[in-house]
Amino acid sequence: SSAAPTLLKTITVDRGVMSLAVSHDGAQFFCCPYANPYALPFPVFAGGDLTKLLGQFQCDSGPSQLIFSADDTLAFAAPASGPTVEVFDTKTFARVQSITPPGEYSGGLAVDNTNQYLIVNSGGNDIANGIKIFLIHPPAPSAPHALLNVSTRTHVEGGDNVEIGGFIITGGNPNTVVLRAIAPSLSAAGVSGAMADPLLELHDATGALVIGDDNWNATRQEVIESGLAPLDEHEATIVTTLAPGAYTAVLSGVRQSSGVALVELFDLAPGNSSVANISTRGKIETEDNIMIGGFIIGGSLDTRILVRAIGPSLAGSGVSAPLQDPVLELHGGNGELISENDNWRSTQQDEIIATSLAPSDDRESAILATLQPGSYTAIVRGQNNSTGVGLVEIYNLDSTTP
Asked: With contact defined as beta carbons under 8 Å apart, do 74 and 67 qualify?
């Protein structure tokens, strides 16, 4: 990888090398000799010591394509003749499966970053063979009513104006989540004034620091295996398994820097427990610097959601300069306006009171809706372009645990 590359080592393989691959973690390197039509094993070497033979894969004919799965637990080999794709366990080197898509041969292989799908280019004279997609690792089942992903974008400063995301995990089992602090890559999406280097911290209900991250590269392999690696090395990511309870994610700028940033929560195992409630507090300004909260409803059933925009009552919690009159909008996945509310008593007053989650100040906003699985966006701005610290909250009223 230097300006003048230097040859480090040469490995002599019987019959010459037809194809090769290296695992994502660098632990394994394997190459296939020209073996077609002979059924010969092909060697697997230690990535750190290419003279150390770890084992051999037995393939029916010499593979023209070799790849590793995203988590390096499986290896896929497409023989040079015939359509069958052989699947191997990279720990035992045993063949665990054979996949035979229609066609004369398998000309190309790929596995997606979530480690769920194998994509095979089935070649041959019949153009209808095309590209086939196989489910190799089924996705984790989601709860009937689940919040799978929540993200909030706002302008982040210091002091009371950092971005604070609180969430509650309900159920009886630990849950694996991914938290991300996204900022520099927002510039590519046309957002002006994006923060250059966000810092992310996760705290438990007592306020104790659970884990922190500056640049996601510190836990690179774990993040890559989640399939949610950020686009910019300066962005922060935390992958962790949490017991049911209340948690807080704090997004700030390195060296007290400021700018527009996005905090995101992904539920990787919604079948274990579920994310019931999420709230994000931050500075709400105008134009690109209003607060934008996106969320995804999973499962297969319609779900009752309560969205609140809180401002004036934050003063009672010691927050200086709260937003005095928040306005709330709820949009669908295509940007269509579903509902809008300024003062919560103006619409749905009785229904909101019945949830026991009515805002404590009449100037605050709330929308109660039954939503189909899909993507939604909650937008909070100040009436008459007013500014201040505000809070957007999303409650899953159909969560299995109150």
From this structure: no
Cα gap 353→345, rounded to integer Å: 9
pTM: 0.62
Residue 189's CB is within 10 A of a number of other CB atoms, namely 10
CA separation for the pair 308, 193 (Å, rounded): 27
The CA distance from 153 to 45, in Å, is 46
- Classified as helix, coil or strand, 218 is helix
Report pLDDT for 402.
47
pLDDT at position 208 is 93
Please name the helix (run of DSSP H) or strand (run of DSSP E) that holds residue 293, with its range, or none: strand 291-298
Judged by DSSP in three states, 379 sits in strand
- Cβ atoms of 322 and 160 closer than 8 Å: no
* pLDDT at site 359: 95
H-state helical runs in 126-280: 220-226
Give the dihedral sign, CA 182/306/241/113: negative
**Euclidean distance between CA atoms 264 and 275, whole angstroms:** 13
Token representation of residue 47: 């990535």
Q: And the tokens for 149?
A: 């992903």
158 CA to centre of own chain:
26
Hey, which residues does 106 pair with through a beta bridge? 122
Q: How far apart are CA 315 and CA 81, in angstroms?
A: 72
> What averages of pLDDT result for each successive group of 10 residues across the chain (402 residues)?
73 70 81 59 74 74 75 78 76 78 67 78 60 69 68 83 86 84 87 89 92 83 83 90 90 89 83 74 86 84 92 89 94 92 95 94 96 91 93 84 49
